[in-house]
Amino acid sequence: MSDRAKNTMQGYADPKLCRELADKIAQSLTGRLRFMEVCGTHTVSIYRFGLRTMLPLTVEHVSGPGCPVCVTHAREVAASIALAAVPKVIVGTFGDMIRVPDSTGQSLQQAKAQGADVRICYSPIDILQTARSNPGHEVVFLGVGFETTAPAVAAVVKQAKAEGLTNLSLLSCHKRIPPALQFLLQNQDVAVDAFLLPGHVCTVIGLQPFAFLRSEYTIPAAVAGFEPADILMGLFVLARMQVENRVEIVNAYPRAVKDKGNPTALAVLGEVFVPGDADWRGLGKIQDSGFFLAPEYKDFDAWERFDLEDIEDKEPPGCQCGQVLKGQLHPRQCPLFGRKCTPSRPVGPCMVSTEGSCAAVFRYGM
Q1: What phi and psi, each to the nearest 5 degrees, are found at residue 276?
Q2: pLDDT mean over 289-303
């Protein structure tokens, strides 16, 4: 990062600027503002920078299903562990997923310790080289994440097809954020006044997929970045809309997000994936909320290649991650928090992932 870029980013964390924004929020509000963020990076930033302590008591923050590792369903975790036990299979995964336990306490990390070939990938591109270098093995990538990571994974699958790689497949656990929010509102699982929308996701899909918040539920929303001033600016926008009795979907992160998203990323998503019903931890099955391989790419589907569709699993005993992900429970209200469940001995994924609410509260307090 250049010195200019560093100085710019430091500006978004300037204490004086943040204090001024927090004061403007307090001065603007005439009532309660209960907002939900649906991004793991927002979760961590809010706790890390102590933003909750800067805000007036009339602003209430709850975390939603915005941590990709946390919302990965128990059956998807069980499927990845089952794959690791298959001879001559190499499982590639992002780092946080390796420690997520199934209901019996098993994880990919333990499978690796017992001899399974499980490899951490820093980019989906890594799995291409793994498949090229190991023609005698089946190589499976565990695709986890939202619209942010799905385009890169789609590009890898597209490249694998172009190269004729027959030993590479994808266990797609990718999720779509807008259907999850609609599901929460339809089922009245969440009571919020506004949403702070995820900047990373919106760089890909833009603002239009969230229009239903305004048209169907009259709930305002603002897209925000991830530095302290970014988040406070998003909240200030929400506060102003409340005062002016406006309901809009506002882009408060214009330096990164375009209203129509990223056409290139959307194109590769539309070519390689199709939406389908997907299981979410704590929420259950949500219509059209997952990314699944399109018919032209079905040869790369690990769910079918390894006959994993019928695998089931349940939540780890006592785990309250589902309630945390719906904003119904603060992590400290879980009886396992800080006792039986810690970052070094996690019971559920919200304590495993660095973007999980439980891990953020454990590390930064509040």
Answers
A1: -160, 170
A2: 98
**Beta carbons of 362 and 331 less than 8 angstroms apart:** yes
Which pLDDT does position 366 carry in this prediction? Answer: 67
User: How far, in Å, CA of 125 to CA of 86, rounded?
Assistant: 23
- What's this model's pTM, rounded to 2 decimal places? 0.93
Beta strands in 235-283 (DSSP E): 249-251, 273-280
> How large is the angle between the packed helices 40-48 and 228-243, nearest 10 degrees?
100
DSSP 274-310: EEEEEEETTTEEEEEEEEEE-GGGGGGBHHHHTT-TT
Q: What secondary structure letter does DSSP report for 333? A: G
Residues 6+ apart with CB under 8 A from 263: none
How do beta strands 138-143 and 168-172 pair?
Answer: parallel
At 363, list the tokens: 């590390």
Q: Are 150 and 273 in contact (CB under 8 A)?
A: yes
Computed over every residue of the chain, the mean pLDDT equals 94
What is d(CA 353, CA 358) in angstroms, rounded to the nearest whole number? 9
DSSP at 95 = G
Q: Which has the closest alpha carbon to 201: 66, 95, 334?
A: 66
- pLDDT one-digit tens code per residue, 332-355: 999 999 999 999 999 999 999 989
91 three-state secondary structure: strand
The span from the CA of 279 to the CA of 286, in Å, is 6
Amino acid residing at 61: H
Beta carbons of 180 and 65 less than 8 angstroms apart: yes
Q: Domains, the chain, ranges and CATH?
A: 34-366 (3.40.50.11740)
CA dihedral 325, 326, 327, 331 (to 10 degrees): -40
* Three-state secondary structure readout of 161-229: HHHCCCCEEEEECCECHHHHHHHHHHCCCCCCCEEEEEHHHHHHHCCHHHCHHHHCCCCCEEEECCCHH
